[in-house]
Amino acid sequence: MSDNPPIEYAFPELRKWEKGAAPYIHVRESGKPGPTVMVTALTHGNEVSGAIVVDTLLERGLAPRTGTLILSFGNIDAYHSFDPRTPFKSRMVDEDFNRVWGRLDQPATTSEMKRALVLRPFVERADLLLDLHSMHDDGVPLMLSGPLDKGAELAKQVGTPVDIIRDAGHAAGMRMRDYGGFGDPKSPKNSLLIETGQHWRASSVVVAKDVAARFLAASGIVEPGDLPADWKQKSPPQQRVVEVTHAIATKTGNFTAARKFEGQEVIAKAGTVLGHDDGEPVTTPYDNCVLVMPSSTRPLRAGVTIVRLGRLV
């Protein structure tokens, strides 16, 4: 019997969108002044909730009233490799597509590097970017706003989900949402990355639709009535901001958790043991420590982040 999570929704057939401004990238111009807004899905090939959003927007023929709208599918080759018997393998082909953005000046020797070079001019063109992701493990939705004030402010304008995560990304490489002007405090460009929940939960599709509708409306290039009426969900009473202070990575892949931890769980006391890595205790560095996306079922290898630790700010 498979230990893989159930797939609760049908995957879209995307080959019909191959022909565009570039393969699987579609640009819609209003002919009127305004920002260039990009919504992209499938940065990882098995994170499909965002692909349903982009597929639906393309099917509806959504066009901007001002500015420009770019709709894209990122690691499309990984998506087309999906096998429900081994669903996690289609996250990537050769390497993580969301870690290559700091080395696009190097030779493109992997599928992900080659695809990033195709997307790069569109990402560089965008004034606002929404990158639609989902999670390996079950967890509450999270908006990753990057380390800058402007990202957190945009997340507050969107108004959901509850948790806004201010973080500096990954030591393994630059994310798309941090690329170029998005990561420059002096640039007006801005970006968000939403983690909608576990990859194949139907609830992740609901979150992806809600956030995309809010983001597009906040951008000003469409009116709320241009979007499906049932996409926007009830707003949370309030949002909270969690600033990541530590990224805990396993040295050799030999990490054992003290117990199963929930995403966004708050650990009251400093010094609480979260687990042992090569026999060494991993503990919380301060009181009221938030556990951001702890890995509970993911296979571990040397250097993999097992949890990020954050403060409520």
Short description:
With 313 residues, the protein is of the alpha/beta class.
Q: Can you describe this structure?
A:
This protein has 313 residues and is of the alpha/beta class. The chain has 2 domains: 15-226, Zn peptidases (Aminopeptidase, 3-Layer(aba) Sandwich), CATH 3.40.630.10; 243-312, OB fold (Dihydrolipoamide Acetyltransferase, E2P) (Beta Barrel), CATH 2.40.50.100. Helix content is 19%, strand content 25%. It is built from 5 helices and 14 strands. It has helices spanning 49-60, 76-80, 111-125, 149-158, 202-219; strands at 25-29, 36-41, 68-73, 128-135, 142-144, 163-166, 190-198, 240-249, 255-257, 266-267, 273-277, 280-283, 289-292, 305-312. The strands form 2 sheets. Strands 1-3-2-4-7-5-6-8-14-13-10 form an 11-stranded mixed sheet, sandwiched between helices. β2 (36-41), α1 and β3 (68-73) form a beta-alpha-beta unit. α1 (49-60) crosses α5 (202-219). It is globular and about 60 Å long. The chain starts with 24 loop residues before the first strand and ends with a strand.
Q: Return the CATH topology of the largest domain.
A: Aminopeptidase
* First-residue to last-residue Cα separation: 44 Å
CATH superfamily of the largest domain: Zn peptidases
Query: How large is the share of residues in beta strands?
Result: 15-25%
